[in-house]
């Protein structure tokens, strides 16, 4: 692709890939020689960076995605997804192939993800000049935690462009996540593996650059630490039955960033995130249908139950 790109609101770094979705009768799945999957087994493009880019674009933000993508059938799916949704993609060649995963989804929408780590190599890097050019043309950069994004953090910090990241199910101890946690201005993570969410949020803020840290907690809402003040963000009732939680955290992050780039206070941004995350839980993982701006703002303006 051409090295030229128009000015963007958000550059999404990394996190592209393909998932194979399998709906199973229960999780954990008991051992058996075989299972019959009546709902079908589907493969589609869409991992964390793709979902954040889709969510941002659906909310009207000019979005560009930069990643290493293989010249393979999975890479074709990633390129087609961005093309169909009008999202700019700089897909740099990746000899190891496009990232892929298998998601087992239970009846309640919970999932178990199996990631193919063979498609990452220690020497993977983003070309510095390409990264600097794209970041410099953006109002904000969202950095996923997929390789080789950690090595890009020093350069991104030098640009002065605000950064965000999603640590997903970090336990607060794994050192792999720390460079992301301490380099970003806005940090998202799941509270699922945290024994003391407040302690982890405050440690991120104290040791790093973040002024805003958000830990999502599913049906329990979210914890928001903004400028040293901790508050609880109530969960939003899903507008339809929950079918799949895959992508809910990415939807939360996209809507939160939309609010942030629109000049909204952190509490309002978190409200947007909760609405978008609840919407995502009602959409099957095989479909790419993030919440739109009018729908988001309409729901945010409605009286709370």
In short:
This protein is of the alpha/beta class and 305 residues long. It has helices spanning 48-58, 73-84, 128-136, 149-159, 178-183, 197-207, 248-261, 266-280, 293-301, and strands spanning 8-13, 18-23, 41-45, 63-69, 88-93, 100-105, 111-115, 138-143, 163-166, 186-190, 212-216, 222-226, 229-233. The longest helix has 15 residues, at 266-280.
Descriptive notes:
With 305 residues, the protein is an alpha/beta fold. It has nine helices and 13 strands. The chain has helices at residues 48-58, 73-84, 128-136, 149-159, 178-183, 197-207, 248-261, 266-280, 293-301; strands at 8-13, 18-23, 41-45, 63-69, 88-93, 100-105, 111-115, 138-143, 163-166, 186-190, 212-216, 222-226, 229-233. The strands form two sheets. It has a nine-stranded mixed β-sheet with strand order 5-4-1-8-9-10-11-12-13, sandwiched between helices. The protein has a four-stranded mixed β-sheet with strand order 3-2-6-7. A hairpin with a 5-residue loop joins strand 11 (212-216) and strand 12. Helix 1 (48-58) packs across helix 7 (248-261) and helix 7 packs antiparallel against helix 8 (266-280). The protein is globular, with a radius of gyration of 18 Å. The model is unreliable at 1-6 (pLDDT under 50).
Number of helices: 9
Low-pLDDT regions: 1-6
Report the structural category. Answer: alpha/beta
**Strand portion, in percent?**
15-25%
Task: Give the % helix.
Answer: 25-40%
Topology, number of strands:
13
End-to-end separation in angstroms reads 48 Å
Please compute the radius of gyration using only Cα atoms.
18 Å
Global shape:
globular
Could you report the average pLDDT, rounded to the nearest whole number? 94
Q: Please state how the strands of the largest beta sheet are arranged side by side.
A: 5-4-1-8-9-10-11-12-13
Sheet with the most strands, sense and barrel status: 9 strands, mixed
Order of helices and strands: EEEHEHEEEHEHEHEHEEEHHH
């Amino acid at each position: 692709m051409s090295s030229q790109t128009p000015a963007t609101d958000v550059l999404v770094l990394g996190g592209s890939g393909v998932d194979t979705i399998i709906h199973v009768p229960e999780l954990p799945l008991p051992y058996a020689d075989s299972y019959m999957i009546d709902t079908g087994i589907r493969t589609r493009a869409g991992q964390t960076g793709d979902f954040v880019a889709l969510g941002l674009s659906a909310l009207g933000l000019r979005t560009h995605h930069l990643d290493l993508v293989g010249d393979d059938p999975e890479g074709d799916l990633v390129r087609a997804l961005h093309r169909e949704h009008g999202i700019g993609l700089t897909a740099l060649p990746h000899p190891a192939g496009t990232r892929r995963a298998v998601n087992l989804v239970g009846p309640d929408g919970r999932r178990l993800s199996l990631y193919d780590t063979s498609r990452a190599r220690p020497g993977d890097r983003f070309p510095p000049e390409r990264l600097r050019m794209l970041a410099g043309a953006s109002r904000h950069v969202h950095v996923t935690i997929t390789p080789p994004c950690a090595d890009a953090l020093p350069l991104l910090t030098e640009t002065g462009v605000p950064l965000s990241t999603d640590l997903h199910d970090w336990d607060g101890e794994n050192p792999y996540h720390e460079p992301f946690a301490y380099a970003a201005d806005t940090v998202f993570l799941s509270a699922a593996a945290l024994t003391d969410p407040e302690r982890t949020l405050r440690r991120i803020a104290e040791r790093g650059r973040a002024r805003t840290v958000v830990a999502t907690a599913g049906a329990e809402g979210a914890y928001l630490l903004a400028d040293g003040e901790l508050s609880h963000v109530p969960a939003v009732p899903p507008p339809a039955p929950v079918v799949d939680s895959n992508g809910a955290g990415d939807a939360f992050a996209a809507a939160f960033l939309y609010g942030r780039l629109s000049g909204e206070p952190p509490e309002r941004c978190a409200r947007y995130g909760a609405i978008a995350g609840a919407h995502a839980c009602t959409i099957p993982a095989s479909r790419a249908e993030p919440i739109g701006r009018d729908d988001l703002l309409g729901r945010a303006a409605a009286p709370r139950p």
